[in-house]
Amino acid sequence: MNTKYMNPYLAGFLLGLVLLATVYITGHGLGASGALKSVTTSTVWAVAPAHAAKSEYFGAAHPQGQSPLMEWMVFEALGVIIGAFISGVISDRLSFTLERPAHVKSWVRIIGAFVGGALFGIGSQFGRGCTSGAALSGMAVLSAGGYLTMLAIFGSAYAVAFFFRRLWHQGA
């Protein structure tokens, strides 16, 4: 199996070019949390249109009857998913396995992933954007908030990494 990864400096440079192109073409930075919001809004409008019409939140996300699924972030998220799949195929790293330590059961790992993802999604709504939108796009326009967000992301990751690393390797 070929597990060669791209040079991280080259990958960072290319990500910067993608961010620059995104700002130039769309007038927006990168971001992903809005895609899930658009899918959720479309689902609520499809399942409970009367409730959605009365809701200030869902009503504002569905202007003039245009589908929230036509938002650019939905297409961005689809591109990320398709691109990741193609990258996995090209680099021979595509596998449908669940990475976990031997002492952790599969269902615990899956529930932990869903809980972590849900907390991340809730946090992105409280923070009015995900890490890619707040940190990368914020830093690209020299926003103090972007730099503070990046410091908070990496600072909290380093603060808790020791404990999670020990949990991961506990049974080894």
What labels describe this entry?
172 residues; single chain; mainly alpha; 0% strand
Distance from N terminus to C terminus (CA atoms, Å) equals 24 Å
Taking all Cα atoms into account, the compactness measure Rg is: 19 Å
Assembly classification: single chain
Helix content: 55-70%
Strand coverage percent? under 5%
Instruction: Give me the strand/helix succession.
Output: HHHHHHHH
Low-confidence stretches: none
Q: Biggest sheet, open or closed, and with what strands and sense?
A: none
Count of beta strands = 0
Shape category: globular
Structural class: mainly alpha
Blueprint (SSEs and pairs):
Blueprint: H1 8-26, H2 33-47, H3 49-54, H4 56-60, H5 72-90, H6 106-126, H7 131-140, H8 144-168
Task: Explain what you see.
By secondary structure, the chain is mainly alpha-helical. Helices cover 70% and strands 0% of the residues. The chain has 8 helices and no strands. It has helices at 8-26, 33-47, 49-54, 56-60, 72-90, 106-126, 131-140, 144-168. The radius of gyration is 19 Å and the shape is globular. It starts with 7 loop residues before the first helix and ends with a helix.
Outline of this structure?
This protein is 70% helix and 0% strand. The protein is built from eight helices and no strands.
